[in-house]
Amino acid sequence: MAWFAKYFPNVITLGWGGEDGWLTAIGQTIYMTFWSALFGGILGLIFGVGLVLFDKGGIKENRLWFNIFDKVVSFFRAIPFIILLAFIAPVTQKIVGTQIGTTAALVPLSLGMFPFYARQIQVALESVDHGKIEAAQSVGATFSDLIFSVYLQEARSEIARVTTVTLISLIGLTAMAGAIGAGGLGNTAIAYGYNRFDNDVTLVATFLVLIFVLIVQLVGDFLAKRLSHKSA
Amino acid sequence: MADSVIDLENISVLFEQEGQTIKAVNDVTIHVNKGDIYGVVGYSGAGKSTLVRVINLLQKPTSGKVVVNGETLFEKNGQQSATEIDTKQLRAKRRGIGMIFQHFNLLEERTVSQNIEFALKHSGQKEKAIQARAQKLLELVGLGDRGKAFPAQLSGGQQQRVAIARALANDPEILISDEATSALDPKNTIQILDLLKRVNQELGLTVVLITHEMDAVKRIANKVAVMSDGQIVERGSIVDVFTNPKYPLTKELIGTAGESEKARRILATHPVQAAADQWELLHLTYTGPSVIDPVVTELYQKFDVEVSIIFGNVDELQGIPVGTLFVTMTGAPEKRQQAISYLHEEKIGVSKIEKEAAE
Q1: Top-confidence residue, B310 or A165
Q2: Which domains does chain A have, with CATH numbers?
Q3: Among the four A219, B109, B169, B243, which has the fewest Cβ within 10 Å?
């Protein structure tokens, strides 16, 4: 390990634990990714399903609701994330009780990822052939059958794929959350690496994020493949 | 009508498309009796699929009345608001109307058995009973050992069999087949058609068969309606329509038009040795075997006209042999007239074919 201490002195100085330690930063990134994926994911799923149902030719065709869903998604997608962080700070204050910190970052992260996810889900669900819906209706399927057994189940491989893409972009967003004191690997790279001219820290933080993304990608690809029984 | 199971009355379906109103179905009335295999033929875009989707209300008509098994599912006249059964009743009703599709529409992320079990989800039976029923249905369609396979692992013909099993799951009285054989090869087409015929006979199912292939109708249907531009232009028993088609489109679909062309081509290479007003080209249709030979001889003896056969063909419709002959009849005009009247008396269909193709 002598060569590591020689070339990466500042990485070692930061240490494992403590406020600026590596484990703390890794934990914060996982924490932010997990919870905002959960909240934003649920929100995105609801909006994605809604967009498909209310769309023209959808099973609950409704112009008003489609437009509301469509505009909300477009609106949040249009705001650059770094601005969204500041923009929704008052809302964060109401929900979490504070505007800064790792937990506070979950609100903008969820709101930042859900419109992206909603669009991805919309595309995934639209790939389900309308004929399958008709066939299910012809055997007397209920509304929930159509959602869960036809749309979501038939598109599950596609959903695994778009979830992977969304998670990777979410990891990207967590790196910006350092701006509101949320910590994480992105913050380590900027605050302890870049700002202090400690390039070794930036390098290691980037490497860790890469590993993180790689794991998500591998698991996602595996699931997408495993969940599909379609030909070709 | 006591034994009619499907009554569509004055059905119209209008679509709005880019500011234009398209009449997909235009004031169609159709009655299907119990046990019928009712063929609906026409080219794509004729409105066949839209019309049959009205039966189980996958397509709500713009106006008209839908009655299935004596129960009114939907009624709307003119500007009145529609009366229709509620969603829950409609779902129950739909289970009594099986449907199969051109692209099978199986759920690809479920096994074959699970596809059938899906249709039985709301049957009120226990899981064990549902699984047993699914297995029985698979055996009925000859796929008893493929329950654990996924649809993508099966051939097109096999997938359509699974779709039939799914459609039959809830013991329907009606089976709608929407171009179910159009994506299949000839061998599978015949197997699927024969399977439909079998369930019609064994389970007493009424079948509505939509297709653009006249051969499919010819093979199993007992009645046929020809659709064009949202309307039914010709309908009747299969034998009547085939032996005596009236509408040009019907002739085209049956192949009479093409066969007439063939007759003209043969005549062009083997010209008739007679003046133009001394002969004509005829298309004869007749049912039942061995009627035609003695008649041809009689024509010569009784009316002094000479009939020579260009080519002919025998089809079987509902077990009845139906013959088609293209002939030239040579003789004096008034004699030929008498001969044609005689053919009519003998219940032989006669239609004159233009000697030259009309441009």
Answers
A1: A165
A2: 16-226 (1.10.3720.10)
A3: A219
Instruction: Compute how many other C-beta atoms are within 10 angstroms of the C-beta atom of residue B183.
Output: 16
Tokens for B116?
């059938």
Task: Report residue B317 as tokens.
Answer: 């419709």
pLDDT value of position B358: 59
Q: What is the mean pLDDT of chain A?
A: 93
Question: Which residues are paired to B99 by β-bridges?
Answer: B176
CB contact set of B150 (below 8 Å; sequence gap of 6+): A229, B108, B109, B110, B111, B112
Please, which pLDDT band fits residue B357 given cuts at 50, 70 and 90?
Answer: low
Distances (CA, A) of B270 to B160, B263, B267, B331, B351: 47, 10, 5, 18, 21
| Contacts A157 to B, Cβ<8 Å | 109
**Which pair of tokens denotes residue A177?**
């959350």
Q: Which of B163, B119, B123 is nearest to B143 (CA)?
A: B163
Structural domains present in chain B: 4-244 (3.40.50.300), 255-353 (3.30.70.260)
Q: Is the ipTM of this complex over 0.90?
A: no
Average pLDDT estimate for B263-274 = 85
Question: Do A140 and B105 make contact, defined as CB atoms within 8 angstroms?
Answer: no
**Shortest Cα distance, chain B CAs vs residue A140, angstroms:** 4
